[in-house]
Each structure stands twice: as structure tokens, then as C-alpha cells.
Design a protein that fits this description.
180 residues
Length: 180
């Protein structure tokens, strides 16, 4: 028998918080509190991100700086647009990775194929390489969801060279066949 456990998706939380008028300190605290509650009280075993669908997987490890979150949310609140949504989402993904490490829980990151909303060129697992080999994030257990198909070779390489990175092969097998 295999245990089936719930995973907490961070994007619905981000969408809900963006509907509020919270300033950065309150926004960040509400985000952290929700993730910690999910992992410690609500029975969620890990976290999941579909940032690939929203702004792509090219996330710099330097996105973890508090100033990036503050500046991005401020730009969004003032309607400046630009790259502010990507900067905010990148920062919040980094924060989720940090909390996954702190609470020793895995982080699933959607890679590769998806439905019609996905921007496939931005979903390449290799875009996560700099982030996942950065010293701050090396301790995080990361599951690359959907084998990264059609970039399964990149996902496999990452799972081979990064000791806490794994591939979920569930949806990739029908498409990647023996390459999965």
C-alpha cells in the first residue's frame, strides 16, 4: 500500500493575497503563515508550484532577497506592470523552497507539458538549474513534475547531478515512452 497525501499549491494563495490591499510586510507574513499552517496543522505533506504556467521556470536564486518581493508588490499595487508579477512570483517560489527546507517537506515544481495555458518554451526544467544548485536551496527535496516532457532529458540529468532532485514520471510515460 502507498500513502496518498495532500500537497499544498502556492498559486491559489498568491492569487488570493493579490486580491487584498495588504502592504508587503503583511502580505509576506500572511503567505508565510498560510504555508506554515498547511505544513504543520492542515495535514499537507509538501508544497507545489505551477509557476511554469504563470511566468516560467527561469528563476534566479537572487530572487530570494526581501527587497525583490517588496519592490515587485509595490509595482503591482501601483499598476506599473512590467516584470513585477514575475519578480513577485519568483520571490515567493524561493520563499516556499526555504520553508520546505525548514519543515523538511518536499516541493513539487511543474515542468514541461501541461494544458493549453502552458508556455512550453518557458517550462524547461534546465531553467531551474541555477536555482536548485544555489547553496541556499541545495537542501530542498524537489520533484520535477511530469518528467519535464518534452524536456525529459534535462529533468533526468538534473535528477542525476542534484542529489535532492527527483523526477515524477506519472504523466510523461505515455509521451516519452522508453525515454522516460
Amino acid at each position: 500500500p502507498v500513502d496518498v497525501v495532500p500537497i499544498y499549491r502556492i498559486e491559489p494563495l498568491i492569487a488570493d493575497l493579490l486580491k487584498t490591499d495588504l502592504g508587503w510586510s503583511e502580505f509576506k507574513q500572511a503567505y508565510d503563515d498560510a504555508l506554515v499552517k498547511a505544513l504543520t496543522e492542515d495535514g499537507y505533506y509538501g508544497l507545489k508550484s505551477i509557476i511554469a504556467y504563470r511566468t516560467g521556470l527561469e528563476v534566479s536564486p537572487l530572487s530570494r532577497t526581501p527587497d525583490q518581493g517588496l519592490q515587485a508588490l509595490d509595482a503591482i499595487r501601483r499598476g506599473l506592470g512590467g516584470n513585477s508579477m514575475k519578480k513577485l512570483r519568483d520571490h515567493l517560489l524561493c520563499r516556499a523552497l526555504e520553508l520546505s527546507i525548514e519543515y523538511d517537506r518536499p516541493m513539487q515544481i511543474h515542468t514541461g507539458m501541461g494544458d493549453f495555458e502552458v508556455n512550453l518554451p518557458l517550462c524547461r526544467p534546465a531553467f531551474l538549474m541555477d536555482l536548485l544548485r544555489f547553496p541556499t536551496f541545495r537542501a530542498c527535496r524537489v520533484i520535477l513534475v511530469h518528467t519535464g516532457y518534452p524536456y525529459q532529458r534535462e529533468a533526468a540529468y538534473m535528477a542525476n547531478v542534484l542529489p535532492r532532485v527527483y523526477c515524477d514520471v506519472s504523466e510523461g510515460i505515455p509521451f516519452a515512452a522508453h525515454a522516460a
